[in-house]
Backbone:
C-alpha cells in the first residue's frame, strides 16, 4: 500500500498543495516551523481521521479558512482508491471511493499508517494513558469492530460514572440503573480487553526478534498487559466477563463511595521487560529507545500479517533522535518494503543507500520549493 498523491486545501499553514509520491522513501527537508511536520501530520490525519499532535480539530484549519480538506489516492493490491477528509468547525466528513461514510469508524483502516515521532520515545517511560492510546490507535487500524466496541465502552463508562456520582451525592438512591449500566459496561469491557491481549501477544512476537537484532543478541524483550482481572495465558471472552462480574461486585460499595468506576480497560497498562527487568523503571535511555523503536518496527509486520499489505511509515524528525547504529537498523528494515516519509532539517551525515535513492522535497513557509 502506498499513497500516490496528496492534495491539501487550507490545512495548517498550507493554502494549497498538490504532491505526487513514489513507492519508496520520500524525504521532506525544511527548517523548523516551516510546515514539514504539518505535511506529515496531514497524511496521518487522512488515514486516522484525527491528529497525533492535537485533539482540537480546529487547529488543523488554516487561520483564514472555514474548513480544511485533505485528499489522496491510495494504491492497494486491488487497485487505487481515492479518499477525502473535510474538517470544519461542525465536524468531519470522510469519503472513500467518492462515497461519504456515515461513521468515521467505517473510514479508519482504509489507509494504514505507522507514525514514529520523538514523542513516541515516551511510549515506554510515559504515563499509562500514552500506552493505552497507542493500543487503541493501532488496533483500531486493523479492526473496525474494536473501534466500535471501544466507543460504546467509553460512552457507557461516562454514563456509569455520572450515575455513580449521583449515588455518591444521594441525588439517586435506586441501584437498579447501576446494575443495568454495569452489565452493559462488562460486555464491551471484555471485548476491548480480549482484543488488547491478543494484540500485545502479536506485537511481542514481532518485536522480540527486532529488539534482539538491534541489541546484537544481548537483550530479550517481553511484553505484559496489566489488568485488574485474573486472566489466563490464553484469554477466553466468557472467563473475562465472569472475572469482571466478580470484580464489580466486590468494588460496588467503594465505587459508590468514590463516585467513579474503579475497574475496566480505561485503567489498564502495558509493561515492557528487557532480560526480565522492567525497562520503564530500570532500563537505560538507550534500552528505552530500542524498545520504542522495536515496537514501531514490529507494527509493520503485524499490520502486514493482519491485512496482507504493508502500511505507510511516517518518521517525523526521528532520525536525529537515534544514534548511527539505530538509524542504520531502522533504514535497513524499511529498505524496499515500505513507502516511508521522513522529515528532517538536513540529511548531511546520513550516508545510507536508502536515503541516497530517496525522493527529496524541500519545504519553506508552507510552500514546496522546486
Residues:
Amino acid at each position: 500500500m502506498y499513497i500516490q498523491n496528496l492534495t491539501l486545501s487550507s490545512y495548517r499553514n498550507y493554502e494549497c498543495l498538490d504532491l505526487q509520491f513514489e513507492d519508496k522513501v520520500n524525504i521532506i527537508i525544511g527548517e523548523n516551523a516551516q510546515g514539514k511536520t504539518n505535511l506529515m501530520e496531514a497524511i496521518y490525519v487522512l488515514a486516522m481521521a484525527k491528529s497525533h499532535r492535537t485533539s482540537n480539530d480546529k487547529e488543523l484549519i488554516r487561520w483564514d479558512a472555514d474548513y480544511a480538506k485533505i485528499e489522496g489516492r491510495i494504491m492497494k493490491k486491488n487497485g487505487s482508491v481515492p479518499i477525502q477528509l473535510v474538517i470544519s468547525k461542525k465536524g468531519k466528513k470522510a469519503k472513500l471511493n467518492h462515497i461519504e461514510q456515515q461513521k468515521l469508524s467505517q473510514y479508519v483502516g482504509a489507509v494504514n499508517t505507522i507514525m514514529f515521532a520523538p514523542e513516541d520515545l515516551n511510549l515506554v517511560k510515559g504515563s499509562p494513558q500514552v500506552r493505552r492510546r497507542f493500543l487503541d490507535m493501532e488496533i483500531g487500524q486493523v479492526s473496525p469492530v474494536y473501534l466500535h466496541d471501544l466507543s460504546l465502552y467509553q460512552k457507557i463508562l461516562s454514563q456509569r460514572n455520572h450515575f455513580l456520582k449521583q449515588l455518591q451525592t444521594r441525588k439517586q438512591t435506586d441501584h437498579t440503573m447501576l446494575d443495568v449500566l454495569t452489565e452493559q459496561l462488562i460486555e464491551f469491557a471484555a471485548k476491548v480487553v480480549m482484543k488488547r491481549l491478543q494484540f500485545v501477544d502479536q506485537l511481542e512476537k514481532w518485536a522480540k526478534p527486532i529488539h534482539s537484532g538491534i541489541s546484537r543478541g544481548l537483550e530479550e524483550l517481553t511484553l505484559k498487559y496489566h489488568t485488574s482481572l485474573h486472566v489466563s495465558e490464553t484469554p477466553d471472552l466468557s472467563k473475562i466477563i465472569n472475572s469482571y462480574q466478580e470484580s464489580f461486585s466486590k468494588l460496588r460499595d467503594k465505587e459508590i463511595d468514590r463516585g467513579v468506576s474503579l475497574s475496566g480497560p480505561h485503567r489498564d497498562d502495558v509493561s515492557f521487560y528487557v532480560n526480565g527487568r522492567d525497562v520503564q523503571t530500570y532500563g537505560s535511555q538507550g534500552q528505552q529507545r530500542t524498545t520504542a523503536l522495536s515496537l514501531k518496527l514490529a507494527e509493520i509486520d503485524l499490520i502486514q500479517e493482519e491485512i496482507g499489505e504493508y502500511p505507510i511509515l511516517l518518521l517525523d524528525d526521528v532520525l536525529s533522535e537515534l544514534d548511527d547504529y539505530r538509524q542504520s537498523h531502522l533504514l535497513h528494515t524499511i529498505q524496499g518494503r515500505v513507502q516511508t516519509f521522513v522529515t528532517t532539517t538536513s540529511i548531511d551525515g546520513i550516508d545510507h543507500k536508502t536515503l541516497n535513492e530517496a525522493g527529496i522535497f524541500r519545504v519553506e513557509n508552507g510552500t514546496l520549493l522546486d
